[in-house]
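Think of the structure tokens as a kind of shorthand, similar to the way a musician reads notation: each symbol stands for something richer, in this case the local conformation of the backbone. In the example below we present two proteins back to back. Begin with the first one, reading the sequence and then the tokens, and try to describe in your own words what changes along the chain.
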Amino acid sequence: MFKFLRPKATLTDGEIKSGLRWVTIEGAVSMGFFSITTSGILVAYALALGAENFHIGVLAAIPFIMQIIQIPTIWLIESVRRRKIISVLSWFFAQLCWFPIALIPFFMPIPGKAAITLVIGIMAFRGILSAICNASWNSWQRDLIPQNILGRFFSRRMAYATAFAVVFSVGSAIFIDYWRNSSLPEDTAFGYSYAILFGALFLGLGSVFFMSLIPEPLMQPVTGPQPSIKERLTAPLRDPNFKRLLQFLFYWSFASNLAIPFFAAHMLQTLGMPVVWVIGLSILSQVFNILFLRVWGPLADRFSNKVVLSIGISLYLMVMGGWIFVTLPDRYFLTIPLLIILHIFAGIASAAVSFTVGTIGLKLSPKGEATSYLATASLATNIGAGLGPIAGGFLADFFSTRQLNFTFTWIDPASTINLPFLSIIGRDFLFGLAFLLGILTLGMLARIREEGDVGREVILESLYEPIKDISRPMSTVPGFTFLANFPFGFFKRVPPGLDVALGVTIYQIAEMARATALAATRGRSITQRMASDLGKNITRYASSRRKIREHGMEIVQHTVRGAMHVVDDNPVNVDKLIEQVVEGVLTASNEAGMDSRDSLMGASQGVVQGAVETGMDVTEAVKITLKTVKKASEGIGMSEEEAASVVGEGVILAAEPLGSEVVAEVVEAIPEENLPLAPDKPDEKS
């Protein structure tokens, strides 16, 4: 009867594709319900039930604090080895908890301590069930989703989910606004009850149904002696790199949740804004979240999760610091414009942070040990995220009667003029503390090593680059001369956070200008322009010897890889594209003083990765690369055979993580004399 809940020893390509589709749908439905129980609605509901700052902090902390239950859940998963059953059952009962929460105003006097205490108790029980589900779900998805598409898949899934959430945020906002305007003040809480009941019935239980349709691959048996639960839990702590990740996740979660849970309460109570405005700003943030998920996802796959996460956190810190200036000390003419700007940048930042925090843990987890590694990462994240709101609640109450003013004073013989510059009061102190603690976490993140990691300046260059590429003087597109000569390097010298804000703004301008430029340049040789521009990019990226030593190979690799994607939007001669891109990159990297071997390794790996991602014939792409490299070998100070051998090594290194089929296609293209030598086999004992 429950055969659909059983894991399968092997999954076909069709089953994996179908499973990914159900994962996406489940995420959209879950996020739709999540938008009803967050976006200021749950905070407003709690305030209607009689909540204070401390209660708001506890409610925000409970889902995270209860994640400690993931520790015994690891033993449960390893013992039962049925992750789908564990996830579906725990998620079903967790969603049922919303029904008694929504019905509290019908059976208890409100506002009152008993009502808010009952909400906290039910949320605590739900947190236990959610923790059990998360531990099994993370391990399940780690084995289901192909590793080479993690960034793109999760960014696309989150984009669809956020779009779905926007629809239900708008619907719930309209309904609650209508209810508040047409009912008595003492009946306000019932409007929130009806919204939560609707979401729990149709979306909460719907997410359980779609989760049950996702196939589960059979957990791989552990070879050799079975490690104890203690050994499993301490394994991530013995991994120095993963331990640094755990420290970062804890401190960032604490710092961010010291402030973020109180944004809605600040708007509702301090600024006196109606719920519909709070939800509307949340929707605005979600819209920009959707727009930039398609930017950050490919960048994370192309460069690394770590550098995208660093940029997202920098922008988030700017947002947290900006909340201090929303009041001076009361609402003023810039309050609403500033709130709009902060919510826009919060959406952009959360798009970068939300999926990279999860995928970096997936990427750094050893295959076969994902359960304990991901559970430990989730535990570090959730303990920090749980302690943050509780500390924030205490601090908000403490600072509620305290104020710090900064005033410019002008004194002359006739008069004294005081000009208020900044007033920090109440929750403003939380925002300032979160900003300062967040800066410290960036240093922790920098110590984490991730394969393919590059400097944040490379990502920022990717944000700035589109507008420069298409803004060269063209008679058919007047006005681009200014953009082509604008000193974009200035943006790299502004403080972290502001550089990202400027970068993403430029990216939006670039996307609009790109469409105009492409229309104006039809008929021109795209490959020639691409090769020329790539040469300039390499020279610009490698502007110092330190960058050449540290990131030369990665810069060349991802430059070539990205250039291959020109075929996504333009019909070009693929052979000529590869030839001119490789030639341009090798010439520019040689002029920049890069090591010739690093340039060849990076270019050859970029060709293979780009060919696979764009659906090109990998064998033909490698053959063209070998031909081009032999022709260009003299210019980089190498013999034809030496250059071809380096390319042979590079393309095989790039192909190995992509699967045996890609390796076979690559090997087919390489002459035997250019294949890398296999390591000598040890002498066999007689």
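Once you have a description of the first chain, move to the second and do the same.
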Amino acid sequence: MASDALLSRIAFSVFQELPALLLIACLTFNITPATANARILIHSETDLPYTYKFDGLNIKPGNQLQLKGRNNSDSKLILIIRIDNLNSDDYYSRYNRQFSIQPGDFSLTVPLTGLKTSGKQPLSLPYTKMIIFTANSSDDALLSEVKITPPPPRPRQVLAVDFGKVDSPVFPGFEQVTANDKRLSGQLLQRFRPSGDSLIQDGLEGLDTFSTPWENGEWKLTLWQQEQGEWEYLPHFLKRKILVEGQPIFDETYSHEQWLSDVYFAGSKKEALIDGDHWQLIGERRTKPVTSNITIKDNTFTIQWIGDRSARYAAGLVLEPLHSTFANEAEQQRKQRFLESWPASKPDFPPQQKLSFADKSPQPFTDHEQHNVYHVGRNTLLNLQFQINSPEIDNNPVIVTANPRNSSGQKLTLKTRYGHWRYERPTPNANELVATDSYLRADLTKMTLQPKVPRNIYVQVEIPDEAPSGLYKGSLQLLSKGTLRVVEFAIDVLPVTLPDMNQSVGLYLEPAPFYEWFPANRQLKPLATACDLALMSSMGFNNVAPPLATPKDDESRKTFIQQMKQLRLFGFDDVPLAYTPLKHLLSIQSADEVMASLATLRGQISSTSLQLPYWSLYDEPHPDKFTTIKTTASKLHSQSLDMRTAGHLNNPKQSDLLDVTDLAIMNHGYGVSKDTIESLQSRRKVWLYNMPAPRLAAGFYLWHTHADGYLQWHGRMPTADPFDPTDGREGDVIYMYPWQGSCPNVMDIHKRLLDLHEATIDLRWLQWLENQAGSNAEARALVEALRSAVPDDWDKAYKNLSNEQLMEMRQSIIELAKRLSASE
């Protein structure tokens, strides 16, 4: 009887606890897609390419394609997933997505709804087929598992909302809520961005409230509220407040200076390899949700947004019991997707036993026992690089530079920067990241030392026209944890003055986008441009596509003329390229109004000593734009205007536009060779732009082909967040990093600016050599040897000439200069 009573009590207890047990079961149900209902396409090793026919398969919101496989090669491969529908008949009418697959095992997850074609149109259901293959038809990749998984059922008592467009992908386990949902209020704008996963890449802007019936009690609210931005736009509101049940759960207020520091420049405050992986420094930093415990008392959950339109934004929302883990598991899935979509390569450096400081400059030098001697001409800059390796952490190392001095005490000035590690795309279109110290920062007080993370110090030494020839000795001193290291160097200034370039080399240029966002910053745009021009001029660049006003009215035409005068003040005397003004003018005025505006501008400029620029008329156009382009060009070339036109060519089909082009700006996509350039120059100027190896293209190749100039995209063109390389269709293109406040004495730059600068040094040594060739047989022979070393065809030059070879070729010129100087 006792045992029966005990059994009865246990049964009664279990019965009483059953609702709680069921609730616990619901709360511990994770959102990892269940495989029970998955459609298995591959379950054993399968070679690529792999083709699957959908045959009317019903794809629903939240369905995902999941792949596992292995890259058996020792280098990365590009895996491509192609999906067609009934309307797909070419590349632009189907879905095409590339992934970088590192050596070893890989896994990928792709949403199967909300897909976009390469023509940027929705890929409507039903799908017809899918092809998975590798670029270049590599046979080194295998698939081991491919399946289509349905979204998991949402646990009871969990509200999971994915705000966005009806044709956007839906995050698994979430409910799609679009602008037409009756639970919403506000003047809603749907946002869809190219970056992020299916939860964060879209959302609703202009929200006032979201309200739905919900059980009273204590709940945990998680809110994804970051709008990713695109191109030059990043949401820049200064106030935002969020209320739940009338109580504030989130309240932020910035001055515009605080916003720039805490939001726009936030990504500059931590380093790759030191402060976290790329998810922590990029994905989590940009998209981390806010979480708050709330109390519901009226059986209704109501959330209210307060602020300007862009502040009232949400991408997703989860409301769940306090001990539920649904939102946390969603974040883990988001992290996994980010790491799959953006594999990162990190250098592996060996540990150091002791502190070292060494000269690593990739410059021609003579090796002395105690230091390297660098032989330079006057009227130039010398780029040097030194490397620190530390066995321990030092958050406060001290670097002291001793300017190079000659025996008379005369010194050369220098600028010092350090390499800050960050993640970036190795090329603009790459779908992978690399850790690199390419962010060269001037504030050495922010530099730290870490084990297994080399710290490079970049020094630019100015050798002015008036510098006496002879030997100048300098040093860098490092004090770390009580240990002193000194590295010495010497500069041999030859009695040679390098000529200014007779071919033009420079950058497309715009002020940082934030100068347009706040009135207090807008008035500083001319100062920002002046700082950029001063830096470029000091480094010897002589070409620029400047930020020119759209000459639509008297005020803007006055600004345009002032900007042209500013170029002259900084030594940019060649005819510049007006890259954006004509395009903007054509977008806001009729054709007749545009011509009238330009005629007025011509009349105003004619009273000055200025020259009108080349007007960029087209930029890598599709053939269906050719007729309109030719019509506009005809009007610009009319006797009343007599304007000079320019166009960007990246495809041989665009050659039909050459007859209306006074400045042909071409890249490797068009087909670049010495013969092509010379044939085009019979009737127009020819510049190269955006070549794969700017150091080669703007230096030895420019000299060899006699092209008139080189222009590189872009001095400062970040996509949205300047320290997030993943938030655009292309990576950030930055040669000069944005700065806050007054013009810095030493500007933060990207290392690629030094590479382009080296091209100008090559070009100037080559010009010096040609000047000597008129009277010196050895110089003439070297000119011929160097011309023979550079192939006429760009593709061959790009394949055969490395930066190291270019430096050796420059070294041969410097050695000749030393011999000629010694004989005088």
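Compare your description with these statements about the second chain. Residues 86 and 128 are 6 Å apart (CA to CA).
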